Amino acid sequence: MSEQLEQAQPKVSIEKELRQSYLEYSLSVIIGRAIPDARDGLKPVHRRIMFAQYELANSYNRPHKKSARIVGDVIGKYHPHGDSAVYDALVRMAQDFSMRDPLVDGQGNFGSLDGDPAAAMRYTEVRMSRLAGEFLADLDKETVDFLPNYDNTLQEPSVLPTKVPNLLLNGSSGIAVGMATNIPPHNLGELCDALKYLLEHPQCSVEDLMEFIKGPDFPTAGFVYAGKGLHDAYSTGRGTVKVRGRVDVEERKKGLQAVVIREIPFGLNKSALVEKIAALVNERKIDGIVDLRDESDRKGIRIVVDLKRGVIPEIVINQLYKYTPLETSFGINMLAVVDNRPVLLNLKTALSCFVDHRREVVIRRTRFDLRKAEARAHILEGLRLAIDHIDEVVALIRAAASPDAARAALMERFSFSEVQARAILDMRLQRLTGLQRDELMNEYKDLLQKIEFYKSILGNPSVLRSEMEREIAEIRAAFASPRRTEVVAEALNGIDIEDLIPDDEVVITLSRRGYMKRTPLENYQQQKRGGKGIAALHTSEDDYVQEFLTTTNHQYLCLFTNKGRMHQLKVHQVPEGSRTAKGVHINNLLPLEEGEWVTTVLALREFAEDKYFLFVTRRGMVKRSSASLYARCRKTGLMAVGLREDDELVVVRPIREDSHIVLATADGIAIRFSCRDVRPMGRVATGVKGIALRRQDFVVAGVILKESDQTTEIMSISANGYGKRTRVDLYRLQSRGGKGIINFKVTGKTGPVVGAMPVHDNDGLILLTSANKVVRIGVEDVRSKGRATMGVMLVRLDEGARVVGFDRVDEGGQTGRAFDAEDDGEDEAPTPEPAAAETPSETPSETPEA
C-alpha cells in the first residue's frame, strides 16, 4: 500500500519548492503588507482602516468612535493580523508629527515626540479627518475594483479612488523581503501645482516638476538641503538629503545668551536628543553650556541651552549639528507597487501613476453617472408624455383589472418601456400640479445638459483634463497649507568656526599634571622687572605649570609627549578659562596612554614643506624632519620621533635650513651648530647626537637662530628667578656633537638653568613660578650680559618657589599697563669677574671650552 502511495505522489525537489515558496512569501509581504500602492499611497492595513470607517460612516462630521471598535472591524472583516499592528497603524495616521496631513482625527493620548506610547485602544477615540473623506469620494460609483476579503464573505476595494496624491503627500516607509521603501512627505500645494503642470505638459522633465516641488516638507519642519542628493532622489528614485533642526539664539539677562532648538528633524525622538546633548556636555565634547532644559508644550518644541558668558553661540550650534542627531541624513527610496510589482519611481513617474489612476477613476465615475442620468432621463421622458395625455392615461389605468394589465396597456398604447410604465404607475397625483410639472421639466433639461457634459468628458480628452484640473484646484484650495520645512541651498560640511572666532592673541597654559586652558593675552598686563606679579592659575600643591606659550586662536597646537608621539588641536579647541582657572584635563582633549604626558606644546599656522621640526631629547639627541610629514594627524596621534629606552623628548621647534641651533643644558652649558649638520630624517627616526653631555647634565632648551642674525640675543633664565640676555655673536659656531661652551654661571643662588630663547629689545617676557604667580616684564628691562654671568633677578620668588616656565611676547615697542603690584626696587644680582666666571672647577677632561 505504501509503495502505491509513493508511486501516486510525484517527487518534488526541496530546493525548487523552497525557492518557489519563498518567492511567493516575498511577493505577499511586498504587495500585501510593507510597500504602498503607487496610486493611493496606502498599504493594505491603512486602506482597510479607512474603508472600515467608511462603512461605519465614521466621517469627520460625525461623533468619534472608540478605536477598539475600528480595530475590531478591521481585523474581523478584512485584516487577519494582530490587533496591535492595526492599532499602531491607526495611531500613526492620527499623529500630526508623523503625518504631514493626518488621515485620522484622534481624541485622547496618541503618543508624543518624546517616544511616549499611545493610550490603549479602549481609551482613545477616532474618526476620519476631512481630508480622508477625499480618499473615499465616489467609492460607490464603481470607480475601483473590489476584491473578496480573506474568507470570501465580504468585498473590499483593491485601491481607493483618492483625489489626493498621498504617496508623496504623507510619504511612506517599510521594510519588505529584500527591499525597502522610504518616501518623505511633501507639501500638498506644491504637489497640486506639479500635477496641473504635468496634465498640461505630459512630456515635461523631472527638472520642470522640481520648479514646483522644491523638496520634502516634513511635519516637524526644520531645514532640508537641496543639492545633488535631492536631485538624484527625484531623478532616479534614490538619494540622500541632509535634514537639520531649527536653532535660534536668544539674548538673556545680564548679557548672557541661550541657544533654543525650536524644530527637529523628522522622526527624531526629542527626549533622546536632550539626553544626547547632556551626555556630550558631561563628556566635555561640547563646551560652554551651563544649563539644559526642555520647555516644550502644546504650542511647539522649545529646548533651551544656556551658554556661559563669552561663548560664541554659533560654535555651540555647530557642535550640536556635528555631534547630535539635530542634523541627520534622510535616505529617499521611492519604491512602490505598480501593477502588482514593486517599482522604483522617480518624481515624474510617481505623479504620473496618480494622474493615470485619477483619469481612470474619473472615466469610470463619468460612465456610472452617465448611465444613471440616461436612465433617469428615460423615465422623465415617459412621465412628461404621460402628463401630456393624463386623461387618457387615467382612463386606461382605471379600466385595467390589475397593475400588470395597466402596465401592459400603457406600453401598448403609448409605446412606453417597462421602466417608464412602472414609473407612471408609481407617480403620485401631486406631480400633476403646475409646480410639480415645472420641476419635472427643469429636471429633465438639467439631465440633458449633464448627459451632454458626461459624453464630452468621455469623448474629448481636453474636457477630461479640464475636469481633473478642476478637482485638483478644489483639493488645493480646501486642504493646502504653507510649507513647514524650509528648503535651502546645498549644506556645507559645517560652519567654519575660525570665521566666527577672531584671531586674537591668547596664552596656552599646561600644568605638569595635565590641566590645560586658553586665556586672552589681554588678561596679563606688563610690569617692570622685579615685581611680585599677580595670581595665575590655581593648581594643587603637587602640581605646577609646565608649558606656557602665547599664540593666536587660528593656529595649530602640536602637542608632543614624552614618548615621542604628536597630537594635534586647533588653538580655539582648547577650552577658555579665566586667569586663575584650573583648566580642563588633557585627557579630555587627547587620547593619551598610561604613563604618557605632554612635554612640549608648539603653535604652528601651516605645515609647509620648506619648514622643518627640530626634535631635541633629554640625552642630547637632535633630529630634523619636514613639517609636512606631520600635517595629517590621526585622532590617536602619530609617532613623531624614535626614542631610546633611557631618553625622552624635551623640546620641538620649527626650523629652516639656514638656521643655527643652540642647545642649552641645566648646568649652564651651550653649543651652537648649523642646521645643515642635521640632515632631514623620516618621521620615526631617532636622530643624531647634538651635544656631548657631562655626567648628570641634561638638555633643557633648543634655541633656533637665523644664520645671518646678529641682533638677536639669547635670554637664559634660572630656576631661582635670575636671567640675562647675551649677544648671539658670543656663541661661536661649532660642530654638532661637541661639549659646548659656558652659557650661564650656575650657582646655588641662581639654581639650574630652566630654559633659553631668542629675544629682541621690543619683546615682552612672561614668567611663571611654581607658586602659580605670573610676572610680565619687558626684555629691555633686562640688561645684556656676557655668557658666564648670573644675570639679574627677574622675579622675587616666595620661599621654596622656583621658575618653571616662561615665554616671549611681541610687544611692538609698547610697554603696556602695569600690574596692581608694587615694585620692590630690587636691582641686578652681583656679577662675578669675567675671568673667574670662565674658570670652571671641573677637571680638564670634562671642562667645556670657555
Structure description:
This protein has 4 domains: 16-189, Topoisomerase II, domain 5 (Alpha-Beta Complex), CATH 3.90.199; 246-325, Gyrase A, domain 2 (2-Layer Sandwich); 356-479, Topoisomerase, domain 3, CATH 1.10.268; 501-846, 6 Propeller (Neuraminidase), CATH 2.120.10.90. The chain is α+β, with helices and mostly antiparallel strands and 850 residues long. It starts with a helix and ends in a 13-residue tail after the last helix. It contains 20 helices and 41 strands.
- Terminal Cα separation, in Å? 119 Å
The name CATH uses for the topology of the largest domain is Neuraminidase
Q: Based on the coordinates given, report the CATH architecture of the largest domain.
A: 6 Propeller
Number of strands: 41
Poorly predicted segments:
811-850
Helix fraction, binned, reads 25-40%
